[in-house]
Amino acid sequence: MSHSSGLPLSMRPTVEGPPPFTTLVELTWRENRVEYWIRFGRQTYEQVLDRHRRVVGLAPGNVFAFIRWAANDYGTVLSRIDIVRAVRGGEPFQTLPFVRPGGDILLKVESWPKVARVLEIIDAIEALGIDACDVVPDHWRHVHHRIAAGLEPHVYTTDRHAAWLKRRSVEP
Hints:
The chain has 172 residues and is α+β, with helices and mostly antiparallel strands.
């Protein structure tokens, strides 16, 4: 049986889009030129566009780290990390390049030394056995403000994380 596409139903490719209210992030990887990637976050959707580009989706409420790095023949031209909470439908959000529709930006840091410091902080949290996307969002805001002020952020601890998990379990 044919439909408007001219192909029988059994031969038509099935292209499922992301679930509603999914935050979409376009990632590019051209070695040593443009490298956009997700450092942490629970992806719920992926679409490969070509050899160098793909789109990933993150469910509402998910926290993720989006890193953008680019260079030209003379060196690095962009180093940035954004830690973002994917928003629910109807929530306010900030726009961010390559992120649709945008998100609640918890941390934004530019310049490689500062980006490297945030990556060290993420590594230290993961060394505690904590998934970085489960960290209390206020901690990422704290890290942003301390780095912006040229100060060392407070260390995230297992006690603070346990308190956050308890608080989150009783919030509506």
